[in-house]
Design a protein that fits this description.
CATH superfamily of the largest domain: Enolpyruvate transferase domain
Number of strands: 24
CATH architecture of the largest domain: Alpha-beta prism
CATH class of the largest domain: Alpha Beta
Strand order of the largest sheet: 22-23-1-24
Radius of gyration: 21 Å
Number of domains: 2
Largest sheet: 4 strands, mixed
CATH topology of the largest domain: UDP-n-acetylglucosamine1-carboxyvinyl-transferase, Chain
Distance between the termini: 6 Å
Length: 425
């Protein structure tokens, strides 16, 4: 699919998409906590659909009820010998330890870029918890046979905090007592906060967070009630909304609704970058108004929020001067190697990007050129190019534009509702 974005001015109101970080965690928590969960504002991205497929394979029943989802679960009891995580990095990292709660062999699979992502983390950690594992030289498919037995372990959090999310969920489900998960080099701490908040909302045992260096499960029992009924509302997504906020800052006057300004989502930090560059912005608990103003270069550390790199590159391209973004080392194991992909695709649009150690240096204010770019099958690259295309000197043609379905399938429709000229072929 090719999406063509014409230079456009934006105006109007829009609701942020549902957070797939919140949605996928809610799916996992609904499964392991048991009972009946009504999920309000459910997401419908490909990653969300994959999470729903996983929990059904692991024993949950899911049905749509008007504009909500109802999940019924009696705990983790796999009904299939294979679990498919689609192309979701969070999904496979979070659900694999939960899969390991079963005492039957289960194969975990994925597709797209997930097939090439490293999975040797599980080969190293899960055997310490009495789980048998096998991988294809550190890649998928992943063979798992539990049941997982909680114990004191140390894990490396430098690649992603998503592994820790899965371990925390699995330990809670397994009734962990007097054990700790020690973590070194933990990245993306806000996402861990989100995990702990979701666990608390679902009545799961929440470990003591000891300065993000260890998470201690005490000896107090937590009884899960499979007859309980609960309601959970999925937050608006700061990751997807970041593209809308940047679009408003560079191309018009828009209002974004449905975002929790007190959220623990890491990508809420986009507000800091927007403030730093002088964006026109008004924030209330109900909505955020963005208006176009002259923008200046900024310095931002994205180590804990690497998904912000693509929208911030689109922002930096429209800022006068040289912008520096830290945290490039977090970009290698995404849907694409985003540092190189952003450099290549924005280079086609006339923006010079230099990579220096852990820094990305963007020369902005030089003007965006009409170009044909490629998403590299990466949802955030497609959206970043589309947002930048609003300010180009001609049409921006985005090849493999359907990549947005992974996280924000309504993106092109939403910017169209705000006045962007979008043609889909």
């Amino acid at each position: 699919m090719i999406a063509t974005i014409q230079p456009s001015s934006l105006k109007g109101d829009i609701y942020a998409p549902a957070s797939k970080s919140s949605m996928q965690r809610a799916c996992a928590a609904a499964l392991v906590a048991g009972g009946t969960t009504v999920i309000r504002n459910p997401g419908h991205s490909n990653d969300d659909k994959a999470a729903l497929g996983v929990i059904q394979a692991l024993g949950a029943e899911v049905r749509a009820v008007e504009d909500t989802l109802e999940v019924k679960s009696a705990g983790v009891h796999a009904r299939d010998s294979q679990v498919h995580c689609g192309e979701s990095g969070l999904g496979i990292r979070m659900f694999t330890p939960i899969v390991a709660l079963n005492n039957t062999p289960i194969t975990v699979t994925g597709e797209g870029s997930l097939v090439s992502r490293p999975m040797d983390f599980f080969d190293t950690v899960l055997p310490q918890l009495q789980v048998e594992t096998s991988t294809n030289q550190g890649r998928l498919p992943l063979g798992i046979k539990g049941p997982l037995q909680p114990a004191d372990i140390t894990i490396d959090g430098s690649l992603s905090s998503q592994f820790l999310t899965g371990m925390l969920m699995a330990y809670a489900a397994a009734g962990a007592k007097n054990v700790s998960i020690h973590v070194t080099n933990l990245k993306s701490k806000p996402y861990v906060d989100l995990t702990l908040a979701v666990m608390k909302a679902f009545g799961l045992k929440v470990p003591e967070n000891r300065n993000y260096e260890s998470f201690y499960f005490d000896d107090q029992p937590v009884r899960l009630n499979t007859n309980v009924q609960r309601t959970y509302t999925v937050e608006g997504d700061w990751s997807g909304a970041a593209f809308l906020l940047v679009a408003g800052a560079i191309a018009g006057n828009i209002t974004i609704k449905g975002l929790d300004v007190f959220s623990t989502q890491a990508d809420k930090a986009v507000l800091q970058a927007l403030m730093s560059c002088g964006a026109g912005m008004s924030i209330t608990p109900e909505h955020i108004e963005m208006r176009k103003l002259p923008l200046k270069a900024f310095h931002f550390n994205a180590t804990d929020c690497p998904d912000l790199f693509p929208p911030l590159v689109a922002l930096a391209a429209c800022c006068e001067g040289t912008t520096v973004i830290e945290g490039v080392n977090r970009l290698a194991h995404k849907e694409s190697n985003r540092a190189l992909t952003l450099q290549e695709e924005f280079g086609k649009m006339g923006i010079e990007i230099t990579l220096q150690d852990d820094l990305m240096i963007i020369k902005g204010g030089t003007g965006l050129k009409a170009a044909t770019v490629h998403s590299h099958h990466d949802h955030r690259i497609a959206m970043a190019c589309a947002v930048a295309g609003l300010c180009a000197d001609g049409p921006t043609h985005i090849e493999c534009a359907e990549a947005i379905n992974k996280s924000y399938p309504d993106f092109y429709r939403h910017i169209g509702l705000l006045g962007a000229s979008v043609l889909i072929n």
